[in-house]
Amino acid sequence: MESKAPEHLGNVAASRQQAKVPQWVWWLLVPLMLVLTLIPWAVAAPLGGAPDSDFHLNTILCVQGDRPGLCEHVSDTEVRVNADTELFYCHAKNVADAPLCYDEGAAANPETTVTKRWNYNGVYPNGYFLFHSLHASPDLTLTVMSTRILNVVLISGLLGVLGGLLAPRQRMNLWLAFLVTSVPLGLSILSSINPSAWSIPAPLMAFFAVRGALLSSGKRRLGLWAMAGLAAILGASSRTDALVFVALAVVAALFLHFDFKRSDLRNAVKIGLGLGSLLLVGVIILVVTGRVMQAPVIGNLAASLQGDPPAGVQPRKVIFENFLNIPDYLMGVFGLWPLGLLEIQLPRLVPAVFFGIFLAMMTLALLGTTWKTNLVLVFLAVLGFLMPLLMLFYTKATVGVWVQPRYLLPLIALFAGVALFDFSAREHLPLVHRVVILIAASGAHLAAFGTVVRRYWQGMDFQSGEQTWWWDGAPGPVFNIVLAGGAFLAFTASVLLGPAIPRAQASESEPFSEVGKE
């Protein structure tokens, strides 16, 4: 009887905690706090606060064809749009100044301009642009801000619904995987008008939805399959490479679920489904590679590695230098690369803290993974090296030019999701360690966001008395800093310090209709 007392007392304590704060309250709080974290990021940046903002806005305005007051198609490749889009990057000419130049220039320049800066050649899928074209208006500021806010609410809401359908432990691990891979670059992109706002979470959502569906039953399984479909739509509508990542996520989930040792008919069907999925992924990869890289890239790469590169092809020396510097993209996800238009250099505290948290979580997760999980992780890690290397070879570029960390962020988030799916933070991380992570992450996030706000509020070369704000209609910068800092603290605390999960419920899902009946 004495040996069972601690377990009994632990269950009583867990029950009391749940009686005070039901689980459904905690897991509705998480997406709400994410929304309140991302909205200040969305408001902080001016209209041209992210790469290719003019390209994406022009496409949103023009994707439906001629629209009076919004867009006129001059030719197959050129459109006439509001000339104010040409002012989007005026603040980048002098990083010492705040971006008031847009408001000043826009007020004096209501004309139109003809440009080729839109998606006339189908480099991006049009689904994302069609969705946001529904709320486009002649007011460019309103269009950009509504696009950012819609992205924030949509992604946070979908993650919240998916989490509510998952088993309690997997629900926490979904948010944990998002947390350890999204700061600061992910938060910056998710609150922008860049299509990557949809492509970044899509593979992670697809993996958790498919694995959760395979482990559940009834209406919850249908709900999770529906979420997997929505994740696929997000990826396919935003970026072509995101469709490949979503397909990889689905195959990874199927592979990890199947028991290949059984030889019954049911397992044969599963193996057939798995092989069919692998074939589908292979076809998608071939189609995407052929569309994006319309050249004999693989053959030229092999020739270069053998020391006999064709004319105009990257030599072997540069390929090896790129290979050795690929980790720069990984560190860029956690803040080593500048944000904004690649002009906002963050304090080195930011990448040190968030890469340290990511590395610690991955190390702990790998202590309990199976051989199948390890095999999937090795494949994703190899792909994470080869994909940017191939892109750099194709564009004849070196690390730091053309290819950006955001291209790899969906794959990194998927890697974290695969590793953390069965992870138990409470078993591997004592309370004091989780509190240390909470404090470190919240402080580093505040440092990152504070640097971004300062860039757009005061400029990088602040002079006493020069306090400006790029958009008169936005809440003040101090309010944004306080809101983002407090909301992210609450978001991280909800993920790391949420209510204890009884072992009986750790792998059992609870439908939304039953959550409030505990």
TrEMBL record:
<dbReference type="Pfam" id="PF09913">
    <property type="entry name" value="DUF2142"/>
</dbReference>
<feature type="transmembrane region" description="Helical">
    <location>
        <begin position="435"/>
        <end position="457"/>
    </location>
</feature>
<feature type="transmembrane region" description="Helical">
    <location>
        <begin position="222"/>
        <end position="237"/>
    </location>
</feature>
<feature type="transmembrane region" description="Helical">
    <location>
        <begin position="243"/>
        <end position="260"/>
    </location>
</feature>
<keyword id="KW-0812">Transmembrane</keyword>
<feature type="transmembrane region" description="Helical">
    <location>
        <begin position="174"/>
        <end position="191"/>
    </location>
</feature>
<feature type="transmembrane region" description="Helical">
    <location>
        <begin position="197"/>
        <end position="215"/>
    </location>
</feature>
<feature type="transmembrane region" description="Helical">
    <location>
        <begin position="24"/>
        <end position="43"/>
    </location>
</feature>
<feature type="transmembrane region" description="Helical">
    <location>
        <begin position="272"/>
        <end position="293"/>
    </location>
</feature>
<feature type="transmembrane region" description="Helical">
    <location>
        <begin position="349"/>
        <end position="368"/>
    </location>
</feature>
<keyword id="KW-1133">Transmembrane helix</keyword>
<keyword id="KW-0472">Membrane</keyword>
<feature type="transmembrane region" description="Helical">
    <location>
        <begin position="407"/>
        <end position="423"/>
    </location>
</feature>
<feature type="transmembrane region" description="Helical">
    <location>
        <begin position="477"/>
        <end position="497"/>
    </location>
</feature>
<protein>
    <submittedName>
        <fullName>DUF2142 domain-containing protein</fullName>
    </submittedName>
</protein>
<feature type="transmembrane region" description="Helical">
    <location>
        <begin position="149"/>
        <end position="167"/>
    </location>
</feature>
<feature type="transmembrane region" description="Helical">
    <location>
        <begin position="375"/>
        <end position="395"/>
    </location>
</feature>
<dbReference type="InterPro" id="IPR018674">
    <property type="entry name" value="DUF2142_membrane"/>
</dbReference>
